[in-house]
Amino acid sequence: MNSAQSQYDYLQPKHLLVGVTGGIAAYKTAELIRLLIKQGHTVQVVMTEAATHFITPTTLQALSGNPVFVDSWDARIANGMPHIELSRPADAILVAPASADFIAKLAHGFANDLLSTLCLARECPLLVAPAMNKQMWENASTQRNIAQLLKDQVTILGPDSGEQACGEVGQGRMLEPDMLIEGVQAHLTPKLLADKKILITAGATMEMLDPVRGITNISSGKMGFALAKVATQMGAEVTLVYGHATASRPQVRHAYYAGTAHDMYQSVMQHIADQEVFIGVAAVADYSPLVSSDQKIKKSEQTLTIELKKNKDILADVASLPNPPYCVGFAAETERVLEYARQKRLDKKIPLIVANRANLALGSDNNSVILIDATGDYPLDTADKTTIAAKILTHLKHQLN
């Protein structure tokens, strides 16, 4: 991998300006700021006067660790130009919640308070998370304003649909904080894989012995799901074939459940034809029962013998296709990790393999891996699996080039 750390600059924490306008959804902004800080970002909060009726500046100051600004004439900004001083350091501005009134201001270029003024004076991307009653959202004027913001290259995050504070049900709810975090990350992530078609397998397979018992492993699906999420953020068209998992499945273009090794093999082969990249992360069972009982196997003897048959090797078969995609494999080993992973890459005839220690990676939120390709070994420091996924995909991008 190129020694220059600059290829990972986009993974560095950002300075985000969070704008808060008047709406009951402002209570969610407290959790949004907490999550942003937890990810290492620095957060500067600017509120409208209406927002202070829903949540206090003191609360958001405590969570962000920075003073909160409301007034354009705040004397804490020495040169009297807070709209310039606050917006210039920001890597992005996120207005959450964004009321119908504030969206109208943005659409028509009004600048009659601190938040609207700095949005107009910004030199960074603007993201807006609408939050309002469903009739207000559906109103023709609001839709015209949203269309204008999109035309002005403002990113709109949401809204969601569901029960609203007023008791009605419909579209207009602000996205939940974790979804807003994903939206911000997707916006800040370079589109390194724009228009690439990538098929990813994730999770564990379950080979059934009878209707209530099966052979499986402790894969959580977190690594495969992280790769699918980050690849989507990088602009790829992702097809996800997933088995049993404890992690939450990300939103991707195409997703197919495959609970057994046979089902996963069939699903992969059905969708592999036009894929440019195949990443086999799923912990697929090497063996399955030769015979699976239709009824629960009753306990009768001290021992039970189960005859197993070898399952098809998905990664090897994809790599051996007449016109194979670029194949990435995973090697989860408990000993001699590098040796076994290097040999696995050669045996399966694939360009890139990701090696890790199974006992440390399976089920964990973090991972430490070594990327192995024809040019050498590239260790990645221990990090959360989303960060590891981003670094794997960045390396993949360079290999594709």
Automatic annotation (TrEMBL):
Residues at the active site: C166
EC number(s) from the headed UniProt entry: 4.1.1.36, 6.3.2.5
Pathway annotation from the record: Cofactor biosynthesis; coenzyme A biosynthesis; CoA from (R)-pantothenate: step 3/5; Cofactor biosynthesis; coenzyme A biosynthesis; CoA from (R)-pantothenate: step 2/5
Domain DNA/pantothenate metabolism flavoprotein C-terminal: start-end pairs: 193-397
Cofactor: how bound: Binds 1 FMN per subunit.
Residue positions binding CTP: D286, K296, F330, K344, K348
Family annotation (InterPro entries): CoaB-like_sf, CoaBC, DNA/pantothenate-metab_flavo_C, Flavin_trans-like, Flavoprotein
Record domain Flavoprotein: where: 14-184
Pfam families linked: DFP (PF04127), Flavoprotein (PF02441)
GO terms assigned for molecular function: phosphopantothenate--cysteine ligase activity; phosphopantothenoylcysteine decarboxylase activity
UniProt region (Phosphopantothenate--cysteine ligase), positions on chain: 198-401
SUPFAM superfamilies noted in UniProt: CoaB-like, Homo-oligomeric flavin-containing Cys decarboxylases, HFCD
Function description: Catalyzes two steps in the biosynthesis of coenzyme A. In the first step cysteine is conjugated to 4'-phosphopantothenate to form 4-phosphopantothenoylcysteine, in the latter compound is decarboxylated to form 4'-phosphopantotheine.
PANTHER family (UniProt xref): HOMO-OLIGOMERIC FLAVIN CONTAINING CYS DECARBOXYLASE FAMILY, PHOSPHOPANTOTHENOYLCYSTEINE DECARBOXYLASE
Family the UniProt entry places it in: In the C-terminal section; belongs to the PPC synthetase family.
Protein name: Coenzyme A biosynthesis bifunctional protein CoaBC
Species whose genome carries this gene: Methylophilus flavus
Gene for this chain: coaBC
